[in-house]
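FW: tagging you since you asked about this chain on Friday. Here's the raw sequence from the shared folder, copied in full. Didn't touch anything.
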Amino acid sequence: MNTYTMRDNKRYKVIKVIEGFICLLSYLITFLIVQYFFNILIIKSEYKVFYLMLTPVLVYTLNKTLAKIILDFTIPITAITFGLFYFFINAVIIKLVGLILHSKVDLISFWKIFLLSILISSINLLIELVLIKPFVRRMKQ
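HL: got it, structure written out here
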């Protein structure tokens, strides 16, 4: 491998890390906004800030891993519902995070979780179009 392709490979990895960080930050901002307005999470610990930060990290991680697998199995349902089933998958992932952190974090209701999944998808789409794609285009030049 010559020096030029190694440099491009390193640059690609840096772009992917920054892109992942921006997505994770958007999840965090979304959770903070929704928590402020709708009070979805009840944190039963003295480390409220830690668990408020940990919850979006877990949701992001599960959305990047487990949600992709679930989506592969539910493609027909997602196609029939014109993609609206994807919000349900996000809500299930958020509920799963609530089960993982059940002793410290309590999620109020499924409909508020469903609202959170719609807001996460909307805000992440907006952030991807406004921040991530222009950044990646600029870095590739």
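FW: Helices lie at 3-38, 48-64, 66-73, 75-80, 85-100, 110-140.
HL: agreed, and The first helix runs from residue 3 to 38.
FW: great, closing this out.
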